[in-house]
Specification:
Number of domains: 1
Strand content: under 5%
Order of helices and strands: HHHEHHHEHHHEEH
Structural class: mainly alpha
Mean pLDDT: 84
Shape: globular
Radius of gyration: 19 Å
């Protein structure tokens, strides 16, 4: 479910929203990392700031979702890899509009509660972590209340990854706990609404019918008659990716 075997070109074509978000946040991060004028301007006008939100700059509840600290390479990589792993499944299941709605709603919810519960008016924050935890929250709802949409192996991956992430949220210093926690809660809360008319993820969804020169049609959907089994090597690779993401999360000491 979470293993990606598409080519780079097909990944962009099949999952345009995920590709756009990852590309946008990486471009913005590079602009800030190389200390460009545009990057500095984006940082100054986009970073989350409680005191400036209080002065009416409400766009700062949205813009931090796409920004990462210029020296936070592990931060931007962690969020980008997480989105690449977990995002495509939801983009296919929900569709483009619902997926971006969930991503923005949970990210904004995390930032709103950062403003409401953080008593330090000088607090600044940035990062896509609230939205990422929102996607995890939606998967958690799916794992317990819509088990027809997720296989047991994927459910296990989601539960373990979510537990590790939530525990590290409260153990590591400098973390925006409100964004993580309320983004996660937002994803769970959206579950009953957003998953009401959703089909389970299919690895064959994007495969097209191919017509040979002799007129014989090749139907790739014939494989649906066979039970899809995860290769043990693929399963091991998925677990290694999860471990790497966890390590990146531990190494990242910046505000998320």
């Amino acid at each position: 479910m979470f293993f990606r075997n598409e080519s780079f070109k097909d990944f962009i074509r099949f999952y345009p929203v995920v590709s756009f978000i990852v590309g946008l946040q990486m471009i913005i991060w590079l602009l800030m990392f190389f200390n460009t004028t545009l990057g500095d301007t984006i940082y100054v006008w986009g970073v989350g700031s409680n005191i400036l939100v209080g002065f009416g700059q409400y766009w700062r509840l949205i813009t931090p979702i796409f920004l990462h600290h210029p020296f936070g390479i592990t931060h931007v990589l962690f969020n980008s890899f997480s989105l690449i792993i977990f995002g495509p499944v939801l983009e296919q299941m929900l569709g483009k509009f619902k997926f971006i709605s969930v991503y923005l709603f949970t990210g904004i919810m995390g930032n709103v509660f950062t403003y409401l519960v953080d008593t330090d008016s000088l607090t600044q924050h940035l990062g896509a972590s609230g939205a990422i935890y929102g996607l995890l929250g939606l998967f958690i709802y799916m794992s317990f209340f819509r088990q027809d949409l997720i296989d047991p192996a994927s459910k296990q991956i989601i539960i373990i990854f979510s537990l590790i992430g939530l525990v590290m949220t409260f153990l590591r210093p400098g973390i925006n706990e409100a964004a993580h926690l309320f983004g996660f809660i937002g994803g769970i809360a959206l579950g009953p609404i957003i998953l009401s008319r959703v089909r389970s993820f299919s690895p064959w969804h994007h495969r097209r019918r191919v017509v040979k020169d002799n007129g014989i049609q090749f139907d790739p959907n014939r494989w649906k008659k066979r039970r899809f089994r995860v290769n043990p090597n693929i399963s091991a690779l998925i677990w290694w990716v999860i471990v790497i993401l966890a390590v990146l999360g531990v190494l990242s000491g910046l505000i998320l």
